[in-house]
Design a protein that fits this description.
2 copies of one chain form a homodimer.
Chain A lengths: L6 E5 L12 H11 L5 E8 H7 L3 E3 L7 H10 L3 H9 L1 E8 L2 E6 L4 E3 L13 E3 L5 H14 L3 E13 L2 E12 L5 E2 L15 E2 L1 H10 L10 E5 L23
Parallel strand pairs in A: 2-8
Antiparallel strand pairs in A: 1-12, 2-12, 3-7, 4-5, 5-6, 8-9, 10-11
Helix pairs in contact in A: 1-5, 3-4
């Protein structure tokens, strides 16, 4: 007896290293077709780095002049002062600094290490890769592009790999989304015993990000995963799930 | 053309409400068989509440006498003082308290709301469900039980639904595991450009928890999910991924 899975994750194989000259929707559609995947009724989860490269969110480190603050952090943490300068430029605020880790709040409101500015897997030793300027809009544009190429009833989730307080290890989270409600809200529904569920709100886009992350680990060369079996419904984007700083206990 | 997914998630349907009299491994094995699932070469992800009920980690609220501290928190947060008393008893320390949210550190070292003590879906209005005493050992026992009933090369991950700083919405995380490395460590490997990956360590058990959480949401009545396509390798347990408090920037 063959059992049909409820949720399936398909790695989209064969995606080449992306440059600003590439039409990402076209590249992904072609690679999906090549492995027999139809981009209908599912969610495309894409790693941030691919989006950032397509959008030319790259900074040549040789053109960066580190500030005194960047030099100070770099000295303390044994990091590249130019890298730290780019991190500071991408940050609204430093949230924590210690143990050679710099946690900042990005302009989008994300709280993460190094403002998401990454040197690994960058297209050249001297290049820093920044987060997309507006990842929700990036997701929206990619979704539209995929739909123009035949995709139907699909959502797009853009992910990055974040650390967490209190736990070692990294897990992918959503930084942009389009075509799916970021949070599945159960408030007002009842539990199995008939009691009202007060605060059960599942962060669907982050669940999708973490799940797809299992196929997107850095040595895999797989920057996009197709997920089926999760309802593609609702509206909103990742910006909607950033907690209001005034209600945040960990700023 | 039918494409084979890399990772598949199968909800284990038909699991009844669990009591301390139930043999959980037997119940799960039978329900899996009924839907044609063989528990071989995969990971069983189980919701904490099922484990807690099987282990009788239940407290009758009518027998709880709230301390002055519990009354104070309950007054401020408009909560049940007996519930708050159980939370305090299950906590090593209060990490944050504000906005009607009580974040504590449990005896296991987890940092979460209300020490994981839950009233919803409990088997009776007056019952609080506590976290398992040793969720890693619970996972280990369940894995052994499943193997005795014919399961092969399987891992077990026990999950609970936690909130996160900075982001609205809940995501399941692992609180216990057995038979799989909790963290997939890429340190020392190289990225696609040949640079050494310094800190890329994926928290595999938390990725599995979040993925399975998509099928375990509170109104679904599905407390167990079978995941295939993720390598069942390595050793260790969830206790290994609790960050050392002295290295934690968010205590």
């Amino acid at each position: 007896m063959k059992v049909t899975p409820s949720i399936s994750l398909f790695p989209i194989l064969g995606i080449p290293l992306i440059t600003p000259q590439d039409d990402l929707a076209l590249v992904i559609t072609k690679c999906a077709q090549k492995i027999g995947l139809e981009l209908k009724d599912g969610i495309l989860v894409v790693a941030q780095k691919v989006i950032s490269k397509a959008e030319d969110r790259l900074v040549s480190m040789s053109k960066v002049t580190p500030s005194e603050k960047a030099r100070e952090i770099a000295r303390e943490d044994e990091k590249d002062p130019r890298h730290m300068e780019v991190v500071l430029q991408e940050s609204e605020a430093i949230v924590r600094h210690g143990n050679r880790v710099l946690i900042t709040e990005t302009r989008h409101g994300f709280v993460c290490a190094n403002a998401g500015v990454d040197l690994s897997n960058a297209p050249g030793e001297d290049i820093a890769v920044l987060l997309p300027l507006n990842p929700d809009e990036s997701a929206n544009q990619l979704r539209k592009g995929l739909e123009e190429l035949g995709g139907q009833r699909l959502a797009v989730v853009i992910t990055d790999t974040f650390g967490r307080p209190w736990r070692e290890g990294l897990v992918d989270v959503a930084i942009g989304s389009s075509g799916i409600a970021p949070i599945d809200d159960f408030r007002g529904q009842t539990d199995l015993a008939g009691r009202e569920l007060v605060v059960t709100t599942a962060a669907t886009v982050d669940q999708l990000a973490a799940a797809a992350g299992m196929l997107m680990q850095k040595d895999s060369g797989i920057p996009a995963v197709w997920v089926t079996g999760v309802p593609v419904t609702g509206e909103g984007c990742v910006a909607d799930l950033i907690r209001n700083p005034s209600e945040d206990l960990f700023r």
